[in-house]
Amino acid sequence: MTEAPKKVVLAYSGGLDTSIILKWLQTEYGCEVITFTADLGQGEELEPARAKAEMLGIPAENIHIEDLREEFVRDYVFPMFRANALYEGQYLLGTSIARPLISKRLVELAQAHGADAVAHGATGKGNDQVRFELSAYALDPSIKVIAPWREWDLTSRTRLIEFAEQNQIPIAKDKRGEAPFSVDANLLHTSSEGKALENPAEEAPEYVYQRTVNPEDAPDTPEHIEVSFERGDAVAINGQPMSPATILTALNEYGRKHGIGRLDFVENRFVGMKSRGIYETPGGTILLEAHRGIEQITLDSGSGHLKDSLMPRYAELIYNGFWFSPEREMLQALIDKSQEYVSGTVRLKLYKGSVSCVGRWSEMSLYSEAHVTFEDDAGAYDQKDAAGFIRLNALRLKLIGNRNARVK
């Protein structure tokens, strides 16, 4: 950054690293700092972040703690799940989808406070720095972004601890050594990476898993639930209407109980390296199966196959930080159009780490028993029509076969 910022909005968790960043911004730039802490359902008490910020000299009017759970699920998670998005075929994008919302609020608060910069605590090795900054620049091209991990000389845990001690920043006893792994959490998932998990040849220890019981210890009796949808979004569980965040919270509990949603995954980061992560997405895994189940009877093959072919690109855009890009918005418009008739109910079976759709019904269903029955279809389908259909589709193949036989 060529010119020192005068006022900075910091994405602040209240933890050791972002508290060090807060103090570093004050000492390095002599700037005013506004803190922003988002409740995205990470399952932690956030009020201590307020006390920590006050202790570090932040006045009350510059401390923002916001409950964004409903907005997070309604405007980010649900649109993503309409696409059945999976990065590299497995990852449900729990960390990726949270970053655009945090960036949006950082930029909005910067504008409200007249700040000339925002700051985040993502490292220079990961994807989050890209996600935060691409989102911020898309929303405010003039905003400055400070990424301390790319600027400062606090390049080791020891130096971080020394800086904290020199500046009277409280250090929890378990923070004085190397953490066994780092955790990111929100209402959709938990992500654990680093240290004890860095060797992909070693099985992750059971203590890494925080949101799900071991599937081997899950109940021996299956549980059935019903999830209802309207235009591609879940609206009720077992007939009980719920808000988006409430639905995901309830599905998380079902998933936790039955050990659903664990993933040990080596992914390709946008910055070029591979990384190994342990993900838990209990409610999201159930929601994905439910959504695909209702699409099976309400989405025609042309729409469904096109949507599935576009899904990897859509998922990659989210993973790489392009939520606010025109191409993601274009794809979202297509996806949302496909969901016009995706309404109805699915029945799911939950059992020892697995979720499967065992029933689905809808007033919008395209499924016709009259056409698929092995019994008398009362004239609903004339099987002789298939002969001409096959001949027309075989014409191209026959011409190719004749050509190949002729030239050999």
UniProtKB/TrEMBL annotation:
Catalytic activity from the UniProt record: L-citrulline + L-aspartate + ATP = 2-(N(omega)-L-arginino)succinate + AMP + diphosphate + H(+)
Signal sequence region: none
Arginosuccinate synthase C-terminal domain residues: 181-399
CDD domains listed in its UniProt record: ASS
Location in or out of the cell: Cytoplasm
Superkingdom per UniProt: Bacteria
Leading EC class: ligase
Molecular function via GO: argininosuccinate synthase activity; ATP binding
Gene Ontology CC terms, in alphabetical order: cytoplasm
UniProt keywords, alphabetically: Amino-acid biosynthesis, Arginine biosynthesis, ATP-binding, Cytoplasm, Ligase, Nucleotide-binding
One Pfam short name: Arginosuc_synth
Main location: cytoplasm
EC number: 6.3.4.5
Ranges where the Arginosuccinate synthase-like N-terminal domain occurs: 7-170
Residues holding L-aspartate: 123, 127-128
Binding site for L-citrulline: 91, 96, 127, 131, 182, 191, 267, 279
PROSITE patterns linked: ARGININOSUCCIN_SYN_1, ARGININOSUCCIN_SYN_2
Gene Ontology BP, a term: urea cycle
Pathway field: Amino-acid biosynthesis; L-arginine biosynthesis; L-arginine from L-ornithine and carbamoyl phosphate: step 2/3
NCBIfam families per record: argG, PRK00509.1
HAMAP family: Arg_succ_synth_type1 (MF_00005)
Family classification: Belongs to the argininosuccinate synthase family. Type 1 subfamily.
Complexes and interactors: Homotetramer.
Protein name: Argininosuccinate synthase
Organism: Paracoccus alkenifer
